Amino acid sequence: MVDPATDTAPDAPGTDPAIELLVPEIDEPDPEVSIVVPALNENITIVEFVRWCRAGLADAGVRGEILIIDSSTDDTPQLALEEGARVLRTPKRGLGRAYIDAVPHIRGKFIIMGDADCTYDFRQLAPFVEQFHAGYEFVMGTRFKGYIEPGSMPALHRYFGTPLTTWILNRLYASKFSDIHCGMRGITRDALVRMHLESQSWEYASEMVLKSVHLKLRTTEVPVRFLKDQEGRVSHHRRMGWFSPWQAAWINLRAMFVYGADFFVFKPGIVMLVLGLLLTLPLTFGAITIGPITFSLFWSLAGVTLAVVGLQCFFLGCLAQTFYDPTGAARERWLHIFRYDRAVITSMVVFTVGLLLAATLAVRYVSDGFSFEHSIGDLGYVAITGAMLMMLGFMTFAFTLLLHASAIRWPAPATPEGR
Fold it and tell me: Is 392 exposed, middle or buried (0-12, 13-18, 19+ CB in 10 A)?
């Protein structure tokens, strides 16, 4: 039986008893667009915000619902409900968690997100709707290509924090966003579900952006108007103190780095591996002199270090791509390249060749009475190359096992047709 107060089945699997959905008397039965916005003690602005949303939906010519995710201690939910918005009452668990809680209650095909403080002009929804109808799945608002009202954005955010973190994310993910912290953004419900958001706090904003890249969503930007706080209202950052913006920046950077770990190891690993092999392999049979430089045993040891660290970084990058690719394409690619039989046999061959090369020095050591009474000559170079091949072979074997184990532990996601 469905509880009319919550519009959900109380005993349905996954229902959180701490969440309550309040439905207004006049409710849109079949919305195309859902405006989904968290609110915390916004009684100063919530009435005007809901009216802005209705004006924006009317201007865009679409049917829509307004879903306020509320954990207020004031009369914000009552005011929103009286204005015709749906209100999802949730515990205060963080900004990102608010969107996670809202997903089962979103009815529209297209979602527009933002803030309930009237800093983003929700009277201008038409550009988002137009891009959705054009086939885009993720529509980012951008204040820098739109309008920023004087006094609305602190100089530290406008000229340093937001441009810097946007630049970092674009470098990490080869994207072209201009304002990754813009709170007004749109996404299809299907794409939001596939994102499987995990962030509980401010970092959800970066997680959405970077997962849009991983999912290869059709993405575009639209200019938005950013307005200063209305008289009497203090932003959440200011309520929490001077440290809040720095904390938000730090946790957003953490999300960028964690989900983009392969940036730091994958390509650098390839470069180190190639340099290491170029240094070590030519020195296998002795020192080489080129002009004034003699590449001796120490260069060979440096090459081994580069090659081993490089291959390790490369493999870590492959695993990072596998773990953080929600489409499963990266896993399939690496499973194809490192097919079990082929990869294991190759690693065994490389390890065996290395063992045979290293054994030449071991044989000399035994024949000299477990000491090196005579000069080992070029055998040292041979043994170093052998040791490197043994390490590279074993690392490839171990990586192959881990890669195939991950495919068992985390099967490939279902295709859109099979969802």
Answer: buried
Class of domain 20-259: alpha beta
C-alpha closest to that of 33 among 60, 69, 73: 60
Task: Answer yes or no: is pLDDT of 276 > 70.
Answer: yes
Q: What is the largest CA-CA distance in the chain?
A: 97
Delimiting residues of CATH 3.90.550.10 domain(s) in the chain: 20-259
Any idea which residue has 């916004």 for tokens? 42
In sequence order, the 6+-apart residues with CB closer than 8 A to the CB of 382 are: 284, 285, 357, 358, 360, 361
- Which band of pLDDT confidence, cut at 50, 70 and 90, is reported for residue 10? very low
Amino acid in the structure at residue 282: P
Identity of the residue numbered 295: F
Q: How many C-beta atoms surround the C-beta of residue 217 within 10 A?
A: 20
356, 386 contact by CB (below 8 A): yes
Rounded to an integer, what distance in angstroms lies between the CA atom of residue 302 and that of residue 275? 10
pLDDT tens digits along 319-354: 999 888 777 888 899 999 999 999 999 999 999 999
Per DSSP, what are the bridge partners of residue 139? 186, 220
Higher pLDDT, 234 or 365: 365
DSSP symbol at 86 = E
Q: How many CB atoms lie within 10 A of CB 118?
A: 23
Which tokens go with 109? Answer: 């095909």
141 in Cβ contact with 222 (< 8 Å): yes
Per residue in 18-70, pLDDT (tens digit) is: 899 999 999 999 999 999 999 999 999 999 999 999 999 999 999 999 999 99
What is the distance, to the nearest Å, from the Cα of residue 76 to the centroid of all Cα atoms in its chain?
33
The helix-helix angle for 379-409 and 297-323 (nearest 10°) equals: 10
Q: Which of 324, 282, 334 is nearest to 307 (CA)?
A: 282
Q: What is the average per-residue pLDDT within 123-141?
A: 98
Residue 375 has a pLDDT of 62
Q: Give the bridge partners for 147, in sequence order.
A: 225
Residues in contact with 184: Cβ distance below 8 Å, sequence separation at least 6, in sequence order: 112, 113, 114, 115, 120, 122, 141, 224
Q: Which of 146, 130, 233 is nearest to 184 (CA)?
A: 146
Start-end of H helices in 174-283: 189-195, 204-214, 236-240, 244-259, 262-280
Terminus-to-terminus CA distance in the chain, angstroms? 26
pLDDT band at 7 (very low <50, low <70, confident <90, very high): very low
